[in-house]
Write a structure and sequence with these properties.
InterPro entries: DUF983. By secondary structure, the protein is mostly helical. The chain contains four helices and two strands. The chain is about 50% helix and about 5% strand.
Amino acid sequence: METEWPPLSPLQTGLKGRCPQCGQGHMFNGFLTLKPHCEVCGLDYAFADPADGPAFFVICFACVPSVLLGVWLEVQYSVPLWVHLLVTGPFMLATCIPPLRPLKGWLVASQFFYKAEEGKLARLP
C-alpha cells in the first residue's frame, strides 16, 4: 500500500538535504553522493540527475566575489603572491565549497517536485 505524502517545497527539503517526498530521510551519503533511496519512505533517487548544476551556480555566483577580492587586492595594494595564497585562496574555498551540497539537494528536490524528466518527442497519430 502506497502512502500519500503531501507536496513539500524543494527549498525546505533540498537545502537541508532531506528526502523530497517525506522530508524526513537523508538524501546524501557523505558530502555530495546521493543515497540510492530514502531510508524512511523508500523513494528511489534514480530519477535525480543534477549534473553540473550546482557547480554552475557556484561558478556564477560564489566565484565572482573571490575573483573581485583578488583583483581588488592586486590593484589597490599590489600584494605579493603569498598574500593572495593566504587571503584569496581560503576565501575562494569558503565561498565555493559549502554551497555545493545545498544547491545539489535543491536541484534534486526540484526535479522530484516538478516531475522533471528527459524530453520526449510527441508523435501525432
